[in-house]
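FORM 7B: Structural annotation worksheet

SECTION A. Query
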Amino acid sequence: MKALYMEKMGTTALTEIPIPAATKDRALIRMRKCGFCGTDVAGYLGLADNYRYPVVIGHEAVGIIEEIDENNDRGLKVGDRVTCEPYTSCGVCYACRKGRYNNCERLSVTGCHQDGMFAEYHTHPIHLLHKIPDSMTDREACIVEPLAIGLNATKRLDVQPGEVCAVAGSGAIGILCALACKARGGIPIICDVLDERLAYARAVGLPYVCNSAREDFARYIRSVNHGNLADCFYEACGAPEVCQRMVDFVENTGRIVLVGWTHAKFTFDKDAIIRKEVDIFGSRNASNCFPGAIDLIASGYVQAEKLITREIRLDQALETLKEMAEHPESYLKILVDLEA
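SECTION B. Predicted structure
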């Protein structure tokens, strides 16, 4: 079968590999579509240090079950359409015992640490499969995983109705964080340095947007929030200069969640954190968020289709990765049709 294969850091190729075999605990999935993530682009550029090579990349996907143990406890069967939660955990470490398996000591993320979903076939742990409702398209199903990341960050902040939440980054994850915030009754305000990205935010119903290359984001937040800074702040772009200023965007006792991978070292103002008594949270992947993400998309609350910039064939993937790396402003979410 064909698969998008990363042999070592910074090298990606479309390669023929054997079809994997189903086991008692893993179902064989015929993959239909898979979305590119910023992590895939970072891996292509050689900037991601969290891969275990060699590996088939891809973790935002939908497919059809081809083989599965009929006695599985999820009630799944051959022919079911599913999305694959990509976070395999040990179940026994400290984080797993607390229910936060997304931060397992031995976490294995599909497409990063074990073979992923940019392939014609993929095997996946049965307990991490989620059936997709008939009302949801394959394209929409590819947005479930990144939306789950936004839901997890929102859960970490414990956003309350009426709270104003600033979001740095109008890429897919930033927009989905903002939509997750809105779903809990928060009021998101999003910034980016690219007008093209901010246009995507407006298209999905986020009215408060700011180009922080032209206007000070803190000042814009105050203009929207009756002279006040934000209650909460999502760092969803991974820019060191934003991380250095993150305390400037929240009120005293505000809350900050770090979602974006920075891929670079930076310094921050520890005294400002103490002075404002700010709470800072990390958010890695997601735990127990896939059902909520599926519901938000199936209900139409999150208009997933508006996040999709383009759909391509698998044999166009390498060329598209290069384009995404060179022109990030032109793309939000790219899907690969694995059956074309």
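SECTION C. Observations
The chain has a mean pLDDT of 95. DSSP finds eleven helices and 18 strands in the chain.

SECTION D. Sign-off
Analyst initials: ____
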